[in-house]
Design goal:
alpha/beta, Spore Coat Polysaccharide Biosynthesis Protein SpsA, Chain A, 11 helices
């Protein structure tokens, strides 16, 4: 860790998208929440390709407060990419993430850090009294949290809550993609992290509109399958692909036996002698293909993930 990172106790990562009315207020609230503490901190705003005046507002904040860093994506990459960029640029011993829409309360930050100091690695916020629409936000969230808990074995009330605190050395090793930021807590269990939930304040949105709706459910479901594979088969991914290939192999054996029997008995059925061999060949091909994918996955795990942080398309917001 660099000498600069040793001087920082906290990094606050805030992804924003079209939040021109909120960023200045949030910055002020963060400063007020931490003014009575002795913490050295930085605030990293990550603009996810906003098309309003969010970048101009961030530039003004940066000019007034040296503790604020603003990153800008040249286009909209999504919340997960924004969180990953914030992790990559963070320097604090602890990292807190929060939304930029003022629904998360910065007053909770000292409480999260106090819980982190008790020996935990991750403090996950729980919006117990959530101020969102019941049908489009709260109900899908409850279903998603139940599914995540059932499939991963990590039962957290509110995986989608952005108000979380992490040990910096952990999250800077993370590599997130797609919609994976909401699965970070289950993913961190791979390294045996100690996790604690804490009820946090949640406020109704005052300005702007929510950027997330029911359309993201399908992406979450697909990512959940990926997380399930990683949690169970991360060390031996060939097992996962072998399990997927078993049904195709079984189908190939059954159709192959059927083809042989029809040939031996010289059945008068004209269609099946053509269909069954085709099914046999296709099934064995799919089974063999999955086994090869498993071998390549094993090779990837053995060699390790040596990628550097992918910061293409990210730039610092310069102060004029």
């Amino acid at each position: 860790m660099s000498s600069q990172s040793e001087r920082l106790d906290l990094s606050i990562v805030v992804p924003v998208f079209n939040e021109e009315e909120n960023v200045a207020i949030l910055h002020q609230q963060i400063a007020e929440a931490l003014q009575d503490t002795s913490l050295s901190y930085e605030v990293i705003f990550v603009d996810d390709g906003s098309v309003d005046r969010t970048v101009e507002r961030l530039r003004e904040i940066c000019s007034r407060d040296h503790r604020v860093t603003a990153l800008r994506f040249r286009r909209n990459y999504g919340q997960t990419a924004a969180v990953q960029a914030g992790f990559d640029f963070s320097q604090g011993a602890a990292v807190v993430t929060m939304d930029g829409d003022l629904q998360n309360d910065p007053v909770d930050i000292p409480r999260l850090l106090q819980a982190l100091d008790e020996g935990f690695d991750v403090i996950s916020g729980w919006r117990k009294e959530r101020q969102d629409r019941a049908v489009t936000r709260r109900l899908p969230s409850k279903v998603a949290n139940w599914m995540i808990g059932s499939m991963t074995g990590v039962h957290v009330h509110d995986n989608g809550c952005m108000m979380k605190a992490y040990r910096g050395d952990l999250v800077r090793k993370a590599r997130l993609y797609a919609e994976m930021h909401r699965f970070l807590v289950p993913m961190l269990t791979l390294s045996g992290c100690r996790i604690k939930e804490m009820v946090v304040n949640h406020r109704a949105r005052q300005f702007g509109e929510s950027k997330y709706g029911l359309s993201r459910i399908w992406k979450v479901l697909l990512d959940l399958l990926t997380v399930k594979m990683l949690l169970r088969f991360s060390s031996h991914p060939a097992t996962w692909f072998a399990i997927l290939g078993v049904p195709f192999g079984f189908l190939g054996i059954v159709s192959g036996i059927g083809s042989i029997l029809l040939y031996v008995t010289k059945s008068d059925l004209e269609a099946f002698p053509v269909i069954l061999p085709a099914i046999t060949v296709l099934s064995f091909f799919l089974a063999a293909h999955l086994l090869l994918l498993g071998m390549f996955a094993e090779l990837t795990v053995t060699l390790g993930d040596s990628r550097e942080a992918d910061l293409v398309g990210v730039e610092l917001v310069l102060v004029d």
